[in-house]
Amino acid sequence: MSDMNIFNELSEFISLRLKSCWATAPAGDWIEHKAHADYDMWFVQSGTVKLRIAGIEHTARPGDVVFFYPRMPYIASCGEEGCRFIYVHFDYGIGEQQRILDDFRLSGIIDANLIREDAGLYVQAFAKSERSSGKPKNLLYLKACLMAVIAKIIELHGQGRYVGAFASETSQRKSGRDLDVLQPIFRYIDDHIHEPVRMSELAPLGGISEKYFISYFKKAVGITPGQYIFQIKMNRARDYLYEKKYTVQQIAGFLGYPDPFTFSKAFKKYYHMPPSKFD
Questions:
Q1: For the chain, what are the domain ranges?
Q2: Percentage helix, strand, coil for the chain under 3-state DSSP, each rounded to 5
Q3: Are 78 and 26 in contact (CB under 8 A)?
């Protein structure tokens, strides 16, 4: 499994909480020193936004999207002509891990040419729902559009087309919650999904004590190893059924279930229908 594929495998567990969304138009003398407690994204509409992070200068122009990690100190200013941008504060996580994005180099300025379509959809949605005060009304649709923007950034990073340039000591994740340590475990589960997988087999692959393995995994991924394995099995079951080439008995064998009945019971628990009715 590639590093970024965790978002596809665990899409059912992803949550996005929109905290606030607003449009602002600072004048040319604007200077802001801040570090937000949550994820922060700016959609630059006009003017030039200058940022200084960890001693490095960055410039965002119209159409660009600026993505800050939590607790990332910055100094922001704009040119004499002023600027306008839409900003949004949000949480994004998998299961109980609400800082899952911190494990990837996503924080930075995403060039307009890379994200124009998805960012444009969000900006249009904001404009349509905006009140005269600048506060949006249709938060559900805005949330969906923001999810698309984040998905695009993740996709660009996975393709090697974008790497975030913002970095600071306070933005770095603790090593005890580092997904890199779990990559051999993800690969092992994927390669051995056809057979029972025991925790005693997984812990050594990450160099983790078996005693602390489950808590380590849950802190890093947001769900337990057992939940993760079950999710992978259900993902593969869905894919096999879509291919329409295999019987329920064959799929049960592919996924390490002892018989079709046990597999069907697990499948129905997850999808609320038997595999024979899945289409």
A1: 3-171, 175-277
A2: 45, 25, 30
A3: yes
**Residue 66: beta bridge partners?**
42, 109
Question: Predicted confidence band at 140 (pLDDT cuts at 50, 70, 90)?
Answer: confident
CATH number (2.30.29.30, 1.10.455.10, 2.60.120.10, 3.90.550.10) of 3-171 reads 2.60.120.10
Classify 102 in phi/psi space as left (phi over 0), alpha (psi -120 to 50) or beta.
alpha
| Cβ atoms of residues 60 and 51 within 8 Å | yes
Which residue in 191, 198, 175 sits closest to 236, CA to CA?
A: 191
> Pick the residue with more confidence: 129 or 104?
104
Domain covering 175-277 in this structure, CATH number: 1.10.10.60
List, in sequence order, the alpha helices (H) in the chain.
6-9, 112-129, 139-158, 183-191, 199-202, 210-221, 225-243, 248-254, 260-271
pLDDT tens-digit profile of 41-60? Answer: 999 999 999 999 999 999 99
